[in-house]
UniProtKB/TrEMBL annotation, chains A, B, C:
EC number, as in UniProt: 4.6.1.12
Ranges of residues in domain 2-C-methyl-D-erythritol 2,4-cyclodiphosphate synthase: 1-150
Protein name: 2-C-methyl-D-erythritol 2,4-cyclodiphosphate synthase
Biological processes annotated in GO: isopentenyl diphosphate biosynthetic process, methylerythritol 4-phosphate pathway; terpenoid biosynthetic process
Keyword hit for Lyase: yes
Function: Involved in the biosynthesis of isopentenyl diphosphate (IPP) and dimethylallyl diphosphate (DMAPP), two major building blocks of isoprenoid compounds. Catalyzes the conversion of 4-diphosphocytidyl-2-C-methyl-D-erythritol 2-phosphate (CDP-ME2P) to 2-C-methyl-D-erythritol 2,4-cyclodiphosphate (ME-CPP) with a corresponding release of cytidine 5-monophosphate (CMP).
InterPro entries recorded: MECDP_synthase, MECDP_synthase_CS, MECDP_synthase_sf
NCBIfam families membership: ispF (TIGR00151)
Gene Ontology MF, one: metal ion binding
Source organism (scientific name): Calidithermus roseus
Assembly notes: Homotrimer.
Top-level EC class as recorded in UniProt: lyase
Length: 153, 153, 153
């Protein structure tokens, strides 16, 4: 068994799409990023890499590399899952928090949960998601933290 | 076995009581909140709900609902523990961090630990609490993050 | 089995050395601190203490005590590991995140990982480290969060 913890933050700006857990969320602002800026998938990927001590997505998919420009984060997740499998593990459960002031995310929980379950081949009851607002600490950012539980293949 | 991670933040303001882990802490400021603003219990509740993929306290106890006005957070915790039990799990251990600049919390650790142990029916040695100051990053907020370990009933 | 979560933050200032995971990182600024300000070791120590409900490093090594002035954090870690062992546990794995804008930390990952593995008597593949920048939220701070997995001796 392994555990992993990861986090991610992006600044919000107008005219960008907002992606969370592989789902497009209607929003006036989205994450400024080289990729699609999906903080939840990025935090999850780092949690998985960290659980297996395989580095982080910053080093595997450097934002200075034109190949990863506008990369969909589910492609990053697929590559991460492959490395995790090669290390002898698979995801067993995840627990993630997204902090964002607007829009309200709870109406999207079921969709994000279903999408993550699909991407990770997990039952939905093993994909825990909670949502928070920043209470004035980060009104112009979207943040995610994620814990993952892995088991040996 | 399940793991869960949750967090919570509230802004501090004068004339409010400060509650942490079900304990009233003498303080010049307390959490601005619809409920009693107990960030430690809120982070714990979200960790437990997240571990079982049962949503979060924002959706179970919406702050737009007059029924939950000034609600004591231990009532929220009781409702959360009931749902967790219905899902087939019970809390086995927790590890929480509270970040607050003033007052100093370490003199209250034993009291909070005993209170949480009682609320969760856990031995005190399974209730880990650490306290930090914000180092200038959040002087007007109280924050908590919490990890929980659950086992099947 | 026990899990623990800990975090630490220090303000950066010129003329201080930057220590992370017991490794000196060349940097224009380092952590303002009573000790060497190693946020990664501090977050790890608090995660270990929290997993065993043994308090936190703020209470074990108070920064008001002249004995701990300029203390190397690996000495704190040794004392923490001793207490954890007395409580009947040993570290089995860790997953840590360091948030710092500059310098880039990924060139130092292997060194920090090797050092932590040595300090904890763990294989390197059980020492997971990810690095993030603050994206404007904390340009003058260094932060760490750490999860640890412990097993009974
Ligand atoms: Mg990112
Ligand atoms: Mg709250
Ligand atoms: Mg420190």
């Amino acid at each position: 068994m392994r555990i992993g913890f990861g986090e991610d933050t992006h600044r919000l700006e107008p005219g960008r799409a907002l992606w969370l857990g592989g789902v497009h969320i209607p929003s006036e602002r989205g994450a400024r990023a080289h990729s699609d800026g999906d903080v939840l998938l990025h935090a999850l990927c780092d949690a998985l890499l960290s659980a297996c001590a395989l580095g982080d997505i910053g080093v595997l998919f450097p934002d200075t590399d034109a190949r990863w420009k506008d990369l969909q984060s589910r492609v990053i997740l697929e590559a991460v899952l492959e490395r995790v499998a090669r290390a002898g593990y698979r995801v067993s459960q995840l627990s993630g928090v997204v902090t964002l002031d607007r829009p309200k995310l709870s109406p999207h929980r079921a969709t994000i949960q279903a999408r993550l379950a699909e991407l990770l081949s997990l039952p939905e009851e093993r994909v825990g998601l909670t949502f928070k607002t920043s209470e004035g600490l980060a009104p112009d950012h979207v943040q995610a933290r994620c814990m993952a539980l892995l088991e040996a293949l």
